[in-house]
Design a protein that fits this description.
12 helices; 419 residues; alpha/beta; single chain; Four Helix Bundle (Hemerythrin (Met), subunit A); 2 domains; Rossmann fold
Length: 419
């Protein structure tokens, strides 16, 4: 029996896995699907299409004109759409064009903001039963992770929540907001040094959750990640969203604190599988001891400006999950032969990637001490050559990394969807 919710997996990687884990923990129904399934008109079997974070532009390419039309027709005829972050950006005017909303140009955004924010809530069913000290307050704290920004172009679109203020432990690029305020530093000076918008006050009153109609279907777009690990209120909103968009009730799941990952180990019953995780863990440890990043929660890192932190975070979390499911032998209906063949392809490419990435990270670490560099700008020719080979010049993933992450993602999808 099919789930009422179709969860589009393509081009989500870390964000898809984060949403997957959160929905599983909340016992909320969903079925993983791919863009090819949408092109094959599978949406007629569902009531809600959920699209998690990830690069909206890459999702759009994967869907193609055929997939875009299928989604638009699905919603227009009464199907509902829910998008988080990249999945929200996908539905705007320059994407699926489901709502009269556009994304602000990068130069007008605070493009590298991440962490906890206090949002102002407007009356709506999805905010029911939040754990607030004062039940009458109109503010709550949630998480955003490097979001775009909405520009709402129609009065018919409801703004369900707006940005109020950044919490002290949030970051803008690699700068902790609370530390800047503590030192009474000048945001204008920092923006001049970084050559991007950094001041989180620029976000004040910006819409972060919106709702509208496309034909008969409801569309909710959220820049807030209600699927963030350890976010108890986020879990409540997820449940409320499922109930609101599906028109049925779901039991309240356990909402305990996030499980610590300190000292976390994996089973070594399968040394081939464990070796994948070990290689990536060595890469992550190298970055940590060279002060290039630190782990913020069980699935996300904070990194220094000038390196490709999100790519390494994606690689680590996906390999970690792949190692866990393969060690547990929960490969569903997939044959061992198919799994081993795909695993061999991953291993061969991963070994080469890690070897080159270690060298690149050390070179970038020293370059950061000498000069101002960004993820795509550096005067060192050796660094530039390695970056081109590993990541290409694309901001939305490319090079050897894209080949590797796609192979990992495909194997992970095969296992999770068949389990």
């Amino acid at each position: 029996m099919k789930s009422p919710v179709a969860f589009l997996w393509d081009e989500s990687y870390l964000w898809g896995l984060m949403a997957y884990e959160s929905l599983k923990e909340n016992n909320l129904p969903f079925k993983l699907i791919k863009a090819e399934d949408i092109k094959n008109k599978i949406l007629s079997d569902y009531r809600l299409l959920f699209i998690p974070g990830g690069w909206a532009s890459n999702k759009l390419k994967k869907l193609g004109e055929e997939g875009i039309k299928e989604i638009r027709d699905f919603v227009y005829n009464g199907g509902n759409y829910l998008g988080f972050c990249g999945g929200a950006g996908l539905a705007t005017l320059d994407g699926l064009n489901l709502l009269n909303v556009k994304r602000k140009p990068t130069k007008e955004r605070v493009p590298s903001f991440s962490g906890r924010i206090k949002v102002k809530l407007n009356s709506h069913q999805i905010w029911h039963n939040l754990n607030r000290e004062d039940s009458n307050t109109e503010y709550s704290v949630f998480h955003v992770w490097w979001p775009s920004q909405f520009e709402v172009l129609s009065k018919e679109i409801k703004i369900l929540a707006t940005f109020f203020e950044a919490m002290p432990d949030s970051f803008t690029s690699d700068i902790c907001v609370g530390d800047v305020e503590c030192a009474k530093s000048n945001w204008d000076i920092l923006e001049s040094l970084y050559e991007i918008n950094l001041n989180p006050n620029r976000l004040k009153d910006a819409p972060v959750v919106v709702e509208g109609l496309h034909g008969k279907g409801k569309v909710i777009l959220s820049l807030v990640h209600f699927d963030t690990p350890g976010d108890i209120d986020g879990r409540i909103v997820l449940k409320n969203l499922w109930e609101y968009l599906l028109g049925e009730s779901f039991p309240i799941s356990h909402t305990g604190d996030e499980i610590s990952t300190e000292g976390e180990t994996l089973s070594k019953t399968d040394m081939e599988v464990y070796d994948l995780f070990k290689r990536v863990k060595e890469l992550i440890d190298l970055g940590t001891r060279n002060f290039l990043w630190f782990q913020k929660n069980s699935m996300l890192f904070q990194w220094r400006r000038g390196i490709r932190g999100l790519e390494y975070c994606n690689l680590y979390i996906l390999i970690k999950k792949l190692s866990e499911v393969l060690n547990s032998k929960s490969t569903g209906r997939l044959s061992e032969r198919i799994v081993n063949a795909q695993l061999l392809e991953v291993k061969e490419l991963l070994e080469l990637f890690c070897e080159k990435a270690k060298k690149l990270l050390i070179l970038e670490r020293f370059a950061l001490q000498q000069d101002f560099i960004t993820y795509n700008r550096c005067d060192d020719p050796e660094i530039q050559q390695l970056r081109q080979e590993l990541f290409s010049n694309s901001k939305s993933y490319g090079g050897m990394f894209k080949q590797l992450i796609d192979k990992i993602d495909e194997l992970l999808y095969s296992i999770l969807s068949c389990g």
